[in-house]
Amino acid sequence: MIKVRWNGDEIKALIKATAKVALLDKSEQLITDEIVPRTPIATGALRRSIKVDEKEKSRDRIRVEISANTPYAHKMHEGLEFWNWSESGTGPKYLEVPIAQNADEVKREIAMRLAKVLD
Fold first, then answer.
1. Quick check: 65 and 5 in contact, CB under 8 A?
2. Which of 78, 107, 81, 109 has the alpha carbon at shortest distance from 95?
3. Does 16 reside within a domain?
């Protein structure tokens, strides 16, 4: 008689944990490498306020939010008022553009880590 042991729940938990860590790690790297250098700087408060938070997760979805938290963060991001961007390469959409430009890289990193743990 052949016995089969079902490890589906353990594997599912491993996949979720691995994907979560990969997403958080890659988000932190994205902040450091892409977002902060693009973020306008005057006092540095806006750059220092950028962070990543894990958001509510549904049964099969992990979500993070990268945000800046200063009273003027939204206006700066959206370019709602004229600003004299004092540093080359900085400007509006300092969160949105790097996130969109790096979405495929984030997906590849998650897939690579999942492949390693499932190998």
1. no
2. 78
3. yes
Interhelix angle 96-118/8-30, nearest 10 degrees: 150
Q: Tell me the per-residue pLDDT of 36-56, one tens digit each, with 9 for 90 and over.
A: 999 988 889 999 999 999 987
Q: Which residue has the tokens 């979405």?
A: 103
Count up the domains in the chain and report the number. 1
| Half-sphere exposure in the Cβ direction for 102 (13 Å, CA) | 20
Bridge partners (DSSP) of residue 53 are 65
Domain for residue 61, yes or no?
A: yes
Global pTM value: 0.84
- CB neighbours of 40 closer than 8 A, spacing ≥ 6? 46, 76, 83, 85, 86, 87, 90, 91, 94
* H or E stretch at 77: helix 73-78
